[in-house]
Amino acid sequence: MQVQLTTNILKANDAIAALNRKIFSEKNIFVMNIISSPGAGKTTILEKLLLKLPPDIKPAVIEGDLATTKDAERIENTGVFALQINTLGGCHLDANMINQVLEKLPLEEINLLIIENVGNLVCPAGFDLGEDMKMVVLSVTEGNDKPLKYPVIFREAAVSVLNKIDLLNYVDFDLNQYEEDLIALNPDQRRFYISARTEEGLEPLIEFIVEKVRAKKGGE
Ligand SMILES: Nc1nc2c(ncn2[C@@H]2O[C@H](COP(=O)(O)OP(=O)(O)OP(=O)(O)O)[C@@H](O)[C@H]2O)c(=O)[nH]1
Ligand SMILES: [Mg+2]
């Protein structure tokens, strides 16, 4: 019974995600779904990244959190439109939550929609929101064993970002093992190594995202 119920929920979610994807495609909006455990640095990465986008990239952000508008406020301080969804205890965003706020977004004015999912490496992995790309963020303080322990999201994400590399000297994070495990899970994944704090490694990640947005705009 439980298995059946889960399958039905996911089927319903996938149908709405397909609808979202169609709407985003019609409007040439590239959509990123950012997933990590709490505190890995999703919002900090966005705060830095949004200020460095070239003028032809027009972003908006959806912030998913159990409670508070703290992250949306941080994003708004960069001058970028941000909308907060509170899941009221839910451990992930789903396609319907995104669908319900579409009319509140400036869809005619943007070509990049970034969705910061609820901080959690497990639940968000199973729910398609209608995004073009999932980006998983891990920080070095969490340990290099996480890709193998939480394989679903590391396998599914087209992009992985290792954040807080400024702290590498203070932790026993094994970079070689991390990379080896990621390659085993998803050999095609683009891997980035950054410090949102010092901005080391941020530029290649921004270039990658900009290329994706321009490609979608060009109809690819
Ligand atoms: N040393 C260091 N600290 C960082 C870096 N990036 C983020 N932080 C810090 O990590 C903490 C959490 O960062 P957030 O950006 O709020 O993390 P988050 O993933 O958005 O967290 P949730 O939204 O709660 O899931 C903050 O105190 C940041 O200042 C980094 O590259 N290096
Ligand atoms: Mg955040």
Automatic annotation (TrEMBL):
GO terms for molecular function: GTP binding; GTPase activity; nickel cation binding; zinc ion binding. It holds the Pfam family cobW. It comes from the Bacteria. The keyword Zinc applies. The keyword Lipid biosynthesis does not apply. InterPro entries: CobW/HypB/UreG_nucleotide-bd, Hyd_mat_HypB, P-loop_NTPase. Keywords: GTP-binding, Hydrolase, Metal-binding, Nickel, Nucleotide-binding, Zinc. GO terms for biological process: protein maturation. Residues 31-189 form the CobW/HypB/UreG nucleotide-binding domain. Belongs to the SIMIBI class G3E GTPase family. HypB/HupM subfamily. This is Hydrogenase accessory protein HypB. The lineage of its organism: Bacteria, Bacillati, Bacillota, Clostridia, Thermoanaerobacterales.
